[in-house]
Write a structure and sequence with these properties.
Distance between the termini of chain A: 25 Å
Strand order of the largest sheet of chain B: 2-3-1-4
Largest interface: A-B, 25 and 21 residues
Largest sheet of chain A: 7 strands, mixed
Number of helices of chain A: 11
Bound molecules: pyridoxal-5'-phosphate
CATH superfamily of the largest domain in chain A: Type I PLP-dependent aspartate aminotransferase-like (Major domain)
Shape of chain A: globular
CATH architecture of chain B: 2-Layer Sandwich
CATH topology of chain B: Alpha-Beta Plaits
Radius of gyration of chain A: 21 Å
Number of domains of chain A: 2
Number of domains of chain B: 1
Structural class of chain B: alpha+beta
CATH topology of the largest domain in chain A: Aspartate Aminotransferase, domain 2
Strand content of chain B: 25-35%
Largest sheet of chain B: 4 strands, antiparallel
Oligomer: heterodimer
Chain lengths: 384, 72
């Protein structure tokens, strides 16, 4: 079996992720920080260490500004619903995932104005087009760091600079890049960074977080959930300090234990070496596919402009036909369709049919890429 | 040895305080908050009382939010 659906969730995970989770279940297990006993402290310490290691990864000065969520979707919802009010104006791109687009469309119904800046057919964004949309009521710019459809990297740093110059908040959806592309809260000018644990950070599903930059006043940000935090238990009001303000309820501590092991794996391998490994393989895949005339490739060709997620189509076959043939005959698992990003598919001209998507990870091998190219060739021969 | 405890608004700051103190080789320990100090269920940092000034300034430097320092 060849697993090429890492953009949906990475698999396999490093063995130490499972080991950390088993260790948590067998030896720790307690409710983090709620009770003051040994095991409760140990569980809280794991969560603390995870905040610390993530602050190293993203260059965050104060790790209390990282709050844990279930996934990138929850983080994005928290940032948008927590900070945006009717009358505000938001700018985003046409390449966004529905985890950004749907909360934005919902806010639009509640009196928020939205500008969706069109991207090129390869999914590229010209940061000047963002700047042109800025008006007096603009409050925030929201962008994905890399598209989950085409793999296109968006110009974070340029947009971060524009946001800074105009005093706007900059929310980045790093679901596809955290762990595989360098991200720097300070130098990229990011105010809110939404990440998910189960993709290139190699943690389990049900882990993710939001980094809340120093320019965001957390006291004015409304939590998605209110409830018990283990702190200030004598008060019935929600704490106003980080991270507790946004972390009501017992967290996914066993998941976070796995995430800690996942991030340790990433830092041990190094973000740059992982990226080089994946770039090298996706380049081979693109080269291989370019020799097959019936294939249409989407997204940028240059490695510096993309991550290792590739969309393509095969002449006269629907994406779902291609995916099921690849699975049945060659054991290749990938993802066809719209990838929760209808706007991105409209941008690249593949709506409503969608594309076939191959997405790699640190564990994808050269052999698997070669076999995948061969499989697509065979598939075309059979069809002829 | 005479001990004191430092109270924090949350477990996050208690762990941060523990880490900062241990990095400086200070012998501190996280313990349950003594009943007479707070009704809360959390933990606090037990410190050698004579180190309270050192630790307090260390925590201030490290932006650790402190709720109070008490003699045990
Ligand atoms: C670009 C992008 N944003 C957001 C998400 C949502 O991530 P999650 O499902 O972990 O919330 C995904 C992945 O599904 C994604 O690819």
């Amino acid at each position: 079996m060849i697993y090429l659906d890492n953009a949906a969730t990475s698999w396999p995970k490093p063995p130490e992720v499972k080991e950390a989770m088993v260790r948590f279940m067998e030896e720790i297990g307690a409710n983090p920080g709620r009770s003051g006993h040994l095991l409760s402290i140990e569980a809280a310490r794991i969560i603390y260490e995870t905040r610390e290691i993530l602050s190293t990864l993203f260059n965050v000065k104060d790790s209390s500004r990282i709050v844990f969520t279930l996934n990138a979707t929850e983080s994005i919802n928290l940032a948008l619903k927590g900070l945006i009010r009717p009358g505000d104006h938001i700018i985003t791109s046409s390449m966004e995932h529905n985890s950004v687009m749907r909360p934005l469309r919902d806010l639009e119904k509640k009196g928020v104005e939205l500008s969706v800046v069109p991207c090129s057919p390869k999914g590229e964004l010209d940061s000047r087009d963002i700047e042109k949309k800025i008006q007096s009521r603009t409050r925030m710019i929201v962008l994905n760091h890399a598209s989950n459809v085409t793999g296109t990297l968006l110009p974070l740093r340029e947009v971060g600079r524009i946001a800074g110059e105009h005093g706007l908040l900059f929310l980045v959806d790093a679901a596809q890049t955290a762990g595989v592309y360098p991200i720097d809260m300070e130098n990229d000018g990011i105010d809110l960074l939404a990440f998910t644990g189960h993709k290139s950070l190699y943690g389990p599903q049900g882990t993710g977080g939001l980094v809340i930059g120093e320019r965001v006043n957390e006291k004015e940000m409304i939590p998605l959930k209110h409830g018990g935090t283990g702190s200030r238990s004598e008060f019935e009001e929600q704490p106003d300090f980080l991270p507790d303000r946004f972390e009501s309820g017992t967290p996914n501590a066993v998941g976070i234990a796995g995430l800690l092991a996942g991030v340790r794996f990433v830092l041990k391998q190094g973000v740059e070496p992982i990226r080089r490994h994946e770039s090298c393989l996706i380049e081979k895949l693109i080269e291989g596919f370019k020799e097959i005339p019936q294939i249409t490739l989407y997204g940028p060709e240059e490695m510096k402009d993309r991550i290792a997620t590739l969309s393509f189509n095969i002449e006269n076959l629907s994406p779902s036909e291609v995916a099921s043939l690849l699975e049945e005959e060659f054991g290749i698992l990938c993802r066809p369709g719209l990838h929760c990003a209808p706007s991105a598919h409209r941008t690249i001209g593949t709506f409503p049919k969608g594309t076939v998507r191959f997405s790699l990870s640190a564990f994808t091998s050269d052999g698997e890429v070669k076999q995948s190219i061969e499989a697509v060739r065979h598939l075309l021969h059979q069809k002829d | 040895m005479v001990y004191g405890v430092i109270l924090f608004p949350s477990i996050y700051f208690a762990l941060r305080a523990e880490k900062k103190s241990k990095e400086k080789g200070l012998s501190v320990r996280l313990i349950p908050v003594p009943r007479h100090l707070s009704s809360d269920c959390g933990v606090c940092l037990r410190i050698p009382w004579e180190e309270r000034e050192t630790i307090h300034s260390l925590l201030k430097e490290g932006s650790v939010k402190v709720e109070g320092v008490h003699l045990l």
